[in-house]
Amino acid sequence: MSTKIFVNLPTNDLERAKTFYTGLGLELNENFTDDNAACVVVAEDIFLMVLRRDFFQTFTDKEIADPNKVVQTNVALSCDSREEVDAAIERGVAAGGSEPRPAQDLGFMYSRDLEDPDGNNLGFVYMVPEAVEQGPGAFMADEAASE
To answer: How many distinct structural domains can be found in the chain?
Structure first.
């Protein structure tokens, strides 16, 4: 099985979407960007394919969900700190996105959501390294025992 991940997202305005994602601090792979699509590089093997809705429709016989009305998927991107989560949200809002709900702080995990201008939902998440190693339940139990 391949280790590359391509997440397809619909857009009503490809140029606006490209401005948003590059404003978020991500780069485009120009080899896979044209009038129908933009390939947004998230990491070496992770890409967002932002596709014009009519082009996206050529890949399926199903109706393409309107991300302003329903959530089809929530793409969660991990960050190395709470500050990195906050900075990503600030960049995204400045680039034309919006924050649809307040931050969530679960003690072991801190997350904030960002909607791109088309309503596609991105989550930015920081998880305490010990919670990653132990699992959230064990980490929270250790935290409670040490109080």
So the answer is: 2
